[in-house]
Write a structure and sequence with these properties.
CATH architecture of the largest domain: Alpha-Beta Complex
Largest sheet: 6 strands, antiparallel
Shape: globular
Number of strands: 6
CATH class of the largest domain: Alpha Beta
Structural class: alpha+beta
Number of domains: 2
Distance between the termini: 14 Å
Number of helices: 10
Helix content: 25-40%
CATH superfamily of the largest domain: Phytochelatin synthase, N-terminal domain
CATH topology of the largest domain: Cathepsin B, Chain A
Length: 310
């Protein structure tokens, strides 16, 4: 059975062409035989020297903050985003928590489980389209939808922020705001008006196989809302569970992603409200450069993945 997705946003091979910010767009375009506007877009989305320096500094700071982060999430611990030292963005990334520090609400039928190591981004796109009521009406399974999105918009090795924004546009959604770290006020406001979020974190946040001092892989999860304790409710496609986390832990996991994988952060997602797919993709794509160009994949618990999604 085929899936009819729009072809005007097919991932072009030239998206992988490298053009450095120092090069002149016209010269680079001639060398790569590409339209100049594509080279300009690629340069503008490249990480700046400041981002590179921040990520390097964050990597060096990981070891220094290991004990602080581990103790913060022991039973009875916890931290508030208002505590001194709370920070967002790629700098100051802490280390992963001790094993056993996860609390889940168990399996949830609304959490779509990824079917292979690399398609957490496609799973998040399909989940968000369902949560926001814009899901395509084709009589196909969720697995077929994920496969179609992954095939059309990625190279099969994971999903970058720009690729996820294209998937969301295809599913009738748009990215309204992005941040390299946790912007708690903006996220809370988006959730209050019915929006959701896609977040790239280090999978140590959600992978129960992570041991003390370990980090995981760059990984996409969605944020559906908050519980009665003020914790964010994450939908994790790698385990098929809903996971409540406080603001500090969510912010830390984004910082770990920057330190270890050179990308991360959050994108706020809302209904495109009749805006066509090309326009939604173009507007959303302009907002995601702050999250880097890292491919989100999944957790290390590959045994979790199967083809059972409906």
């Amino acid at each position: 059975m085929s899936v009819n997705l729009s072809s005007n946003l097919r991932r072009p091979f030239e998206q992988r062409a490298e053009a450095t910010p120092a090069a002149q767009p016209q010269q680079t375009a001639q060398q790569l035989e590409l339209p100049q506007e594509k080279v300009v877009a690629r340069v503008e989305s490249a990480r700046t020297p400041q981002q590179v320096e921040q990520a390097t500094d964050a990597y060096a700071a990981v070891g220094d903050l290991m004990r602080e982060w581990s103790s913060r999430f022991q039973a009875g611990g916890g931290a508030s985003a208002q505590e001194p030292g709370f920070s967002v963005g790629p700098a100051g990334a802490p280390e992963a928590p001790e094993i056993g520090g996860w609390e889940t609400e168990g399996s949830d039928s609304s959490v779509l489980k990824q079917t292979k190591q690399t398609n957490c981004g496609a799973a998040v796109a399909v989940m968000l389209s369902k949560d926001l009521g814009t899901g395509k009406t084709q009589s196909v399974s969720d697995t077929q939808k994920m496969d179609a999105l992954e095939s059309r918009f990625t190279d099969g090795k994971g999903t970058s922020p720009h690729e996820l924004s294209n998937m969301l546009a295809n599913q009738g959604l748009k990215v309204t705001q992005t941040s390299a770290g946790l912007d708690k006020d903006s996220l809370d406001q988006a959730l209050a008006r019915g929006g959701k979020a896609a977040v790239m974190v280090d999978s140590c946040l959600v992978d129960p196989t992570t041991k003390e001092g370990e980090t995981g892989l760059a990984h996409w999860v969605s944020v559906e809302g908050k519980d009665d304790q003020g914790r964010y409710l994450l939908k994790d496609p790698s385990t098929g569970t809903r996971i409540p986390v406080d603001a500090q832990r969510l912010a830390d996991s984004m910082q770990i992603s920057w330190a270890k994988h050179q990308g991360g952060g959050m994108m706020l997602v809302e209904n495109a409200n009749g805006i066509g797919e090309p326009q939604a993709a173009a507007e959303s794509g302009q907002k995601v450069a702050s999250m880097g160009n890292t491919d989100g994949v999944g957790s290390r618990a590959q045994a979790n993945f199967g083809r059972e999604s409906s």
